[in-house]
Amino acid sequence: MDSEKRPMLPLIGSEIVKSTLTALWFMFLTFPIMVIKISPLDKTIHWRWMNLVYVGAGAFFLSFLWRYFMERKVQGARADEDGGWQKRAGQRISTDRRIYLPGLIALGAFVAIFPFLFSSYQTSIMITALMYVMLGLGLNIVVGLAGLLNLGYVAFYAVGAYFFALMNHHFGLGFWFALPMAGAIAAIFGILLGFPVLRLRGDYLAIVTLGFGEIIRLILENWNDFSFGPSGIAGISRPGIMGASLTLHQHTIYLYYIMIVMVVFTMIVVGRLRNSRIGRAWIALREDEVACQAMGIDKAKTKLMAFALGATWAGFVGCIFAAKTTFINPSSFTFMESAIILSIVVLGGMGSIMGVVVGAFILILLPEYLRAFSEYRMLVFGASMVLIMVFRPQGIIGGIRQHYTFQRKPAADAGEGGDAACA
Amino acid sequence: MEYFLELFFGGLTRGSIYALIALGYTMVYGIIELINFAHGEIYMIGAFTALIAASALAMLGMDGWSLLALSGVIAIIYSAAYGFTIEKIAYKPLRKAQRLSPLISAIGMSIFLQNYVLLAQTSDFLSFPALIDEFSFMENVTIIGSAELVIIITTAVATAILTLFIKFTRMGRAMRAVAQDKTMAMLLGVNVNRVISATFIIGSALAAVGGVLISSQIGQINFYIGFIAGIKAFTAAVLGGIGSIPGAVLGGLVLGWTESFATGYISSDYEDVFAFGLLVFILIFRPAGILGKASSEKV
Amino acid sequence: MQPVLDVKKLTMDFGGLRALEGIDLQVNRGEIVALIGPNGAGKTTFFNCITGIYEPSGGDMIINPPDKPAKRINKLKPNTVTESGLARTFQNIRLFQKMTVLENVMVARHCRTRSGILGAIFRGTKTCAEEQEMVDFSYRMLEKVGLEGYVNDLAQELPYGAQRRLEIARAMATEPFLLLLDEPAAGMNPRETRELDALITRIRDEENLSILLIEHDMKLVMSISQRIYVLDYGKMIARGTPAEVAADPNVVKAYLGETFDA
C-alpha cells in the first residue's frame, strides 16, 4: 500500500515485471497441453509453438486486468460507491411508470411479432432460449432465493420429459394434459429427494443432489424396459390446438407463443413469491439458518417448498422439451446441463429475475449466433462462473429488494416514489 | 474363490486410486472447508501430462522404468503447479465470501479445465502407453497383475510418507494447526497462505500419481475421466470422514470393494450407480463418515 | 402466580464436558431478570437450551404463557419454541444481511401469519390483507426501537448499535411473552447503552412482557434488572436482587478471580 508514495516510473516497472512473471508462469503451465500434440496414429509430435505466444501475451495483459479489478474490488468494499447509483437507477426504472411503460410496450410488440420477422430456425432457437429462461428462473427459486445449491436440477427436467414421453408413447396422452401433471410429478420427486437431504449443510447438499441427478440419468440409460435405454423415445406428439393439423412451421410458432406465456407466467410467479411471506422465509434461510429458525420458521418445511417448487418448473420445461424435439434420450440430461442452468443463474444474478432472463439470453443465444464462439462455449461458461464469483458475486443484475413507503414517513426518506405492499 | 480374490484385488486397486485422489479432497476440506470440485480435473491433467511426456520421451528412445519415473515426475510437477495456480485464482479471492461462492467457483474451474484440455488436445480417447512392465515373478499369478501390484504398493508408500510428513515436519504441524483454527494459527505466526498452497500442491501431486498409475493400467484417457473419478474420490473422502487422512484411504478401499463386488456379483450396468448410491446414502445417514466425528455449528 | 419461565435442574453435557449443571431459574411475569457470569460460564449455552438449539441432557424447562396452558419445552425445535412465545437475540448479531430492515422484521411475522405459496402467486384479498398487516406491524416495531428511518436500507448497511436494536425489533415481532436478549449492549458506547437501558424498560412496560438478558455491562444490569442470577463454570453461584448479588462474596470471587487470572 505504500506504493502510492513511490515515483511513477518504478511503479509501472514493477507492474510489468509482475505481469511478465505471470505470463512466464502460464507459458510453463500450459506448455505440455497447449503446445505438444501427439498424433496417435503415426506416433508423431505436432509442435504448436504459436499457442505458447498466445498464452504468454494473453496472460501478460490479463494479469494487468486481474490486478486492476482486484484493487477495485478491495477499494469498492471499503468505499461502497459502486452499486449505489446502479441500485438507484434500477429502482427508478422498476418503479417509475413513465420510464418502464414505453419500454415494456415496445418489447411486448417485438416479442409478439418475433416469429413473423424471423425464420422458423431463429424462432426455434428463441424457444430454446426461453426454455432456459424458465429453467433458470426455476433453479433461481432453489439456489438464488433459498440458497440451496442443487446440482442435480436436470433430474427433474428429465422426470418431466420422460413422464410426457412415456405417457404419450404408451397411452397417447396429449401435451396439455401432461404439462400440469409433469410439473406435479417433478414436484413429488423434489419432495422425495428434498426430504432426506434437508439436514445437510450447503456443500454436502450440492454433492448429494449431483449424485441423485447422475443416478436418475444412469437408470434411464440402463433400464431398457422402462426408458428404452440410450436409444431414447421418438415420435412424441407436439402440442396441438383442438385437433387442427399444423405444419412444422406453424408448430414452431405455436410453441413460441406457449413459451412466451409460460415465461411471463413464471416471471410473475417468481416475482410475487420473492416478495411474499414464503419468499422472505427462503431468503432468510439463505442468509442465516439459525436466526431463521429462531424467528419461528420451520426449516424443513420451507426448504421442501423451495425444492418442490423449483422441481415443478423443471418438470414443466421437461415436458415442453419433449414436445419440442419429439425425441428424448438420456444424453440430454447430463450434469453439464445442470451446470449450464446453474451458470445462467450465477451469471445473471442469484435471486434476480431480470438477471436470469439476461443471463439465459447471453449464454444460450450468444453461442448460437457467434458460430466461432460456440466451440468455446463451455470454456467460457466455466471461466465466467469463476470470474463472476470473484469479482461480482451478485451477478450482472443483482436482486432488487421491494421498496416500501409509509404515510407516517420520516423526513429522511421523503420524496421517493414507491408502491404499497400488494400493488 | 479365485473369482472372489480377483474381485478383491480389483477392488483394492481401484480403491487405492480413489484413496490417492481422496487424500487431496480431504486435505483441502480439512483446511479451508471447500469441496475442491476441480480436483478430479487435476488428476485428469496429470494423466494427460504423463501421456504427452511419455510419448515425447519414448520418441527420444527412452523406455522401461526410467520412462515411467520421468513422465511420472513431470506429471506430478505439472499437477502440483495447476493445483497451486487454481487455488490462487479461484479460491483465494473467495476466502471471506459466502459459503457457496467458492464451491460455485470450483465447479466453474472444473468445467473450464475440462474444456481447456478438450480444445487444446482432443475429445477422443487417447491410448495410454503401458508404462508398467510385467514382473517376471508374477508370471504365474492370475488373480492380480503387475500394474495392480504397483498401484497398491505405491498407494501404501505415498500414504505412509504423507502421514509421516503431517506428523513430524514443521509444515505438517502448521497444516494441523490451520485445520484446527485458522485465526489462532495465524496469530501464532503460521503463514496460512503458504500452508494452504502447500496443501493444494501435495494433494494435486497425489492425484497425479493416481492419474498416471490408473491410466497406465486401463490404457486410455480422455478429458472427462476427471469428473467421474473426482466424484468417486469425493465419495471416498466423505465415506471415511472428510478431513481425516486414514479415513480417505479407508473410504477409498471400501468404495473400491463395493464397486468391484457389486459389479462382479450383481450387475456391471450399474457400476456408477453403486458409487453414487453409496455417496447419497453416506451423506444422508452418516455425513461424518466412518472415522469422522459429528460436529455442530457454533451459535 | 406461576413464573412465565421455570427452569429446573437444567443440565447440558457436550460429550464428556458438563457445560451446565443443575440450573434453576425463574422469570416472573413483567420482570427483567439478568443472567451474568464470566466468559465461558455457560450463559449462551443456557439460552441455546431454552430456545431449542440444543437439547438439554437433563432437567425441565416449563413455560407459562399468559393465556395458554403451561408447556414443557425440552424437546421442541427452535421454531416451535418461538411460536410458543419465546424470542431471542444473538450475541454475535445474526441479521439477514441482504434483506432490508423492514423485511428482517417481517420475516419474524412468519409464525403469526398463514398465507402460503398459492396465496403468494394469486394474491387474493386475504393474502393482501395479511401482507399489509405484516408491513404495519413490522413498521410499528421499528418505530419502537427508533429505526423507522431505515426501513428500506439493507441490514448490513446499518451502524452497529442500530443492528443490535434491529435484532430486538425482529424478536419483538414474533409477539413473545418472554424476550431473551443475549448481550444487547455488547460493543455499544456509553450513550447507546443508556438509550438501550431506557428502551428495554419501555418495551417491557408497553408490550407487557418479561425479559431475561445476558449482559456484561454491570451498570446496565444493576440499573434495569429486578433480579440477577450469577453463573460460573456451568453452576449457579448466586441469585437475588442487584444489591444482594453485588454483596455476595462468591460473586466477588468469581469476577475478581477472572480479572487476576486473565
Structural overview:
The complex is a heterotrimer of chains A (423), B (299) and C (262). With 423 residues, chain A is an all-alpha fold. Chain A has helices at 8-35, 49-79, 84-95, 97-117, 120-145, 153-171, 175-197, 202-222, 224-227, 248-274, 277-287, 289-294, 299-325, 335-348, 353-369, 371-374, 377-391, and strands spanning 36-39, 44-47, 233-234, 327-328. In chain A, the strands form 2 sheets. A two-stranded antiparallel sheet of chain A has the order 1-2. A two-stranded antiparallel ribbon of chain A has the order 3-4. In chain A, a hairpin with a 4-residue loop joins strand 1 and strand 2. Chain B is mainly α and 299 residues long. Chain B is built from 11 helices and 2 strands; from the N terminus they run H-H-H-H-E-H-H-H-H-E-H-H-H. A two-stranded antiparallel ribbon of chain B has the order 1-2. The termini of chain B are far apart. The mean pLDDT of chain B is 86. Chain C is built from 10 helices and 10 strands. In chain C, strand 4 and strand 5 (71-72) form a beta hairpin. Chains A and B meet through helix 1, strand 1, helix 2, helix 8 and helix 14 of A and helix 2, helix 3, helix 4, strand 1 and helix 9 of B.
Q: How many individual helices of chain C? A: 10
- Low-pLDDT sequence parts of chain B: none
Major sheet details of chain C: 6 strands, mixed
* Gap from first CA to last CA of chain B: 54 Å
Element order of chain B: H for helix, E for strand: HHHHEHHHHEHHH
The overall strand count of chain C is: 10
Strand order of the largest sheet of chain B: 1-2
- CATH fold descriptor of the largest domain in chain C: Rossmann fold
Inertia-based shape of chain B: globular
Largest sheet of chain B, in brief, is: 2 strands, antiparallel
Summarize the entry for a quick read:
The complex is a heterotrimer of chains A (423), B (299) and C (262). Chain B is an all-alpha fold and 299 residues long.
Topology:
The complex is a heterotrimer of chains A (423), B (299) and C (262).
Chain A: H1 8-35, E1 36-39, E2 44-47, H2 49-79, H3 84-95, H4 97-117, H5 120-145, H6 153-171, H7 175-197, H8 202-222, H9 224-227, E3 233-234, H10 248-274, H11 277-287, H12 289-294, H13 299-325, E4 327-328, H14 335-348, H15 353-369, H16 371-374, H17 377-391
Antiparallel strand pairs in A: 1-2, 3-4
Helix pairs in contact in A: 1-2, 5-10, 5-13, 5-14, 5-15, 6-7, 6-8, 6-13, 7-13, 11-13, 14-15, 14-17
Chain B: H1 2-32, H2 39-59, H3 64-91, H4 100-120, E1 126-127, H5 146-168, H6 170-180, H7 182-187, H8 192-218, E2 220-221, H9 225-240, H10 245-265, H11 271-285
Helix pairs in contact in B: 1-5, 1-8, 1-9, 1-10, 2-3, 2-4, 2-8, 2-9, 3-8, 5-6, 5-8, 6-8, 9-10, 9-11, 10-11
Chain C: E1 5-14, E2 17-27, E3 32-36, H1 43-50, E4 58-63, E5 71-72, H2 78-84, E6 86-88, H3 101-108, H4 117-122, H5 125-144, H6 160-172, E7 178-182, H7 190-207, E8 210-214, H8 218-224, E9 227-232, E10 235-240, H9 242-247, H10 249-261
Parallel strand pairs in C: 3-8, 3-9, 6-7, 7-8
Antiparallel strand pairs in C: 1-2, 1-4, 4-5, 9-10
